[in-house]
Design a protein that fits this description.
The chain has helices spanning 11-14, 18-26, 40-60, 66-73, 77-83, 87-112, 116-130, 138-141, 186-202, 212-221, 229-247; strands at 143-145, 171-173. The chain has 252 residues and is mainly alpha-helical. The chain folds into two domains: 8-91, Tetracycline Repressor, domain 2 (Orthogonal Bundle), CATH 1.10.357; 95-247, no CATH class. InterPro entries: Homeodomain-like_sf, HTH-type_TetR-like_transc_reg, HTH_TetR, Tet_transcr_reg_TetR-rel_C_sf, TetR_SbtR-like_C.
């Protein structure tokens, strides 16, 4: 199944070289040829567009049109396109920022929590509360269901602690070729989450059949988008409590 539809597939082709794109949009120029700093009003518009994009994509997914982003930012759609020459470039910017945020949250939990289960649950609670799960890049959130006789690992994204031989109905990460060799930081995220998973599993606190794909699916599904902020926070906390109970290993 796919947990999120997106126009991501062409982003890397447009943004050949992720660093160049990040530098370009940071300077407010699509071509990266910065000559002078952004004017105060131009910088303000850029910040409004980025904030609006996070909100709109978080609520509606990456399939939401640029017009919705412009409307939320209270700027003309032309202003959005002056900063980001295509929707794919904007999607890439937002997804990379959220991936970096989640990676840092995972590293913090890994470094500051001595107990393996506390580290994993801290990461999950922090990431769900931030809402970043709704904005992860599609190559992280595209999840396939393995069937009997499927092609197997050759078609899968190779990440730590992923089940190497999925059985029927088990979740697995599936790759989405970008064509540019740049994963937008997804590899680093998968690596550090893999460490959290391995520690909790080795300590006997995580069910042995839980994989990195399952943990990321929890992050994505435990952050519902509701119109009322208080209701959203309460729903997320309650849902995450239930999901954490499902992940935890129980004595036989």
């Amino acid at each position: 199944m796919h947990v999120q539809d997106t126009h991501w597939s062409s982003a890397a082709a447009i943004a050949s070289g992720g660093g160049a794109v990040s530098a370009a949009v940071d300077n407010g120029r699509a071509d990266g040829a910065r000559t002078t700093p952004l004017r105060v009003d131009a910088q303000r518009n850029l910040e409004h567009v980025l904030r609006a994009a996070r909100e709109v994509f978080g609520e509606l997914g990456y399939g939401a049109p640029m017009e919705d982003v412009a409307r939320r930012a209270r700027v003309g759609v032309g202003t959005v396109y002056r900063r980001f020459p295509s929707k794919d470039v904007l999607v890439r910017r937002i997804a990379e920022e959220e991936t970096a945020r989640l990676t840092e949250q995972a590293r913090t939990a890994l470094g500051q929590e001595d107990e393996p289960w506390s580290a994993l649950s801290r990461f999950l609670r922090t990431s769900v509360a931030s809402g970043a799960g709704r904005l992860l890049p599609p190559q992280v959130l595209r999840v396939g269901v393995a069937e009997e006789g499927s092609a197997g690992p050759a078609e899968e994204t190779r990440v730590p602690q992923q089940r190497s031989q999925p059985g029927a109905g088990e979740l697995r990460l599936v790759s989405e070729p970008s064509g540019a060799g740049d994963d937008g930081g997804a590899g680093a995220l998968l690596e550090v989450v893999g460490q959290l998973v391995e520690r909790a599993r080795a300590a006997g606190e995580l069910r042995p059949d839980v994989s990195v794909a399952d943990v990321l699916l929890v992050i994505a599904t435990a952050a519902p988008s509701l119109p009322d902020a208080a209701q959203q926070a309460a729903a997320s906390a309650r849902l995450l409590d239930i999901l954490l109970e499902g992940l935890r290993s129980r004595p036989a």
